Amino acid sequence: MLETIVWTDDGVVMIDQRRLPREEIFVTCRTYEDVAEAIRNMTIRGAPAIGVAAAMGVALGVQQGADFEKVCSTLAATRPTAVNLFWGIERMRRLHAATSGDPGRMIEEAKQIRLEDIAVCEAIGRNGADLVPDGKTVLTHCNAGALATAGYGTALGVIRAAVSAGKKIDVYADETRPFLQGARLTAWELQHDGIPVKLITDNMAGHFLHSGKIGCVVVGADRIAANGDVANKIGTYSVAVLAKENNVPFYVAAPISTLDLKIATGQQIPIEQRAPEEVTHVFGVPVAPENIAVENPAFDVTPNRYVTAIITERGVARAPYEEALRKLASAASSAA
Question: Which domains does the chain have, with CATH numbers?
Answer without folding.
Answer: 5-120 (1.20.120.420), 124-335 (3.40.50.10470)
